[in-house]
Amino acid sequence: MDIWDKLYNEALSVQNARVVSPFIEAGGVAAAIESESGKIYVGVCIDTCSSLGMCAERAAIASMLTHGESRIRRVVAVMSNGKVGSPCGACREFMMQLDKNSSNIEILLDTDSKSTVTLGALCPDWWGRSRFE
Questions:
Q1: How far apart are CA 74 and CA 33, in angstroms?
Q2: What's the whole-model pTM score?
Q3: CA 103 – CA 99 distance, rounded (Å)
């Protein structure tokens, strides 16, 4: 099993769409990230009626940060239909701010072809790059 399959399966293992309360739904989207150390962190989306929720990618990153890491190698986000998708703008921005090399983070775009894109390709001419210099 390659790393992309492993990340996909790890995300799928926590994906569990459910209603938490009359205000919150969770688990429709799940994500797995591989840190620079090779550890895998997972998270699910938390959708609220007041926009205070969190995407699955940021939930996984929060777990990674909680465990003392801050550098990401790879990201997989599994949508409710089982397909993978690229991170939203807020997640892209959050990841770019984590590390000076975040533009090298690989994101899986298709499970069959294993096609990927780098975060840098999704965030060309990122506004904050000079702060890392």
A1: 6
A2: 0.95
A3: 9
